[in-house]
């Protein structure tokens, strides 16, 4: 097992290129199950979630190749093999195997998903959708079993705006008989990306990106080629990093429209920012103001950037309130930032950040993916050496992180953990 070491306090400069979107990738790959012939997806990020899904598709009989970000999936020999345990537990998005396998085989058995611990993360809305389409859903010893004689289109109102439920219901509905209408659907760009792939495969979907999605089921779907959208959360992470410790950073391969809430907040803080068609330039920010943020569903401020943004606020003048309305417990990074000298306290669903503070290098642990990003930014901003453990979380979502940051002049490297450190980590 490895840890990350960072010598912080040096300004970063140069260009950093954003990879394909993790939260699209983890839905696009299961979506290939629905086709009868090979599907190719270009621009996938090289992250462990993608590799885990590749091997899950292989487990159910898919033939998959993955090279230079291009994945080719031949789903023709796939079978509805039960996946009640094993690799499905490694990532939350394995729940998309439920919708895709139900859509193609009318049955699936998938272990309850893993992923980041951010407080309660129920999947009741996914199940409500599958049941409305005619599936019988049972929970047997930690795995969800889905069975249907046939799937029939239905009108489904989501009680909670959910990215996962919206995509999962789309996956199950594209080969159902008749029309499905999803009301109060999530509007994230990743939903449009998945709908685009499915449409290219032959599905009939209207309204993806709005809160009402209409799907007319088709008998069969066939292979196609699809290019994934850039990762707005990775782009946002690097924009926040550039605002925290950059002296002129160009973030390349961005769709700025996907990041309007972050761009608005950075402008409010007086961060110099120039927005191009596919690039964002963040200039050197000497003196930044505090701003409050509240996470909301898209196009509101994304919960996935709340943790990195908290690190930036330690450098801002004044007191800021960070409120997460999506996940009640997405504050595990705060204790670690405090170890690095941050002045932050948590009150209910909010964190109050007082700045500016000079962060100091320390030994810290990433409890989840975006906590990891927050700590890496903190390490680059801090004086002295920071050690970050829990890299398995960061590797789930940030492609070639060390190499990309080295490209900006960062001093950051991976190091093997000693037996003693591994013991300490286990008992912590
Ligand atoms: N919710 C329910 N019932 C459900 C589904 C969701 O109550 O059936 C609640 C959740 O507990 C949460 C809210 O609804 O409070 C929103 O959850 P959503 O379903 O939208 O989240 P998700 O689909 O499980 C995706 C991303 C997350 C991101 C959220 C919110 C993927 C694989 N994950 O999760 O990304 O935080 O949407 O935008 O797409 C990350 O990338 O670090 C990450 C955690």
Automatic annotation (TrEMBL):
The keyword rRNA-binding does not apply. Gene3D superfamilies: Enolpyruvate transferase domain. Its EC number is 2.5.1.7. UDP-N-acetyl-alpha-D-glucosamine binds at residues 92, 121-125, 304, 326. GO terms for molecular function: UDP-N-acetylglucosamine 1-carboxyvinyltransferase activity. InterPro entries: Enolpyruvate_Tfrase_dom, Enolpyruvate_Tfrase_sf, MurA_subfamily, RNA3'P_cycl/enolpyr_Trfase_a/b, UDP_GlcNAc_COvinyl_MurA. The active site is at residue 116. It is found in: Cytoplasm. Its main location: cytoplasm. It catalyses: phosphoenolpyruvate + UDP-N-acetyl-alpha-D-glucosamine = UDP-N-acetyl-3-O-(1-carboxyvinyl)-alpha-D-glucosamine + phosphate. The modification 2-(S-cysteinyl)pyruvic acid O-phosphothioketal is found at residue 116. Phosphoenolpyruvate binds at residues 22-23. Residues 8-405 form the Enolpyruvate transferase domain. Pfam families: EPSP_synthase. Belongs to the EPSP synthase family. MurA subfamily. Cell wall formation. Adds enolpyruvyl to UDP-N-acetylglucosamine. This is UDP-N-acetylglucosamine 1-carboxyvinyltransferase. It comes from Rossellomorea pakistanensis. The lineage of its organism: Bacteria, Bacillati, Bacillota, Bacilli, Bacillales.
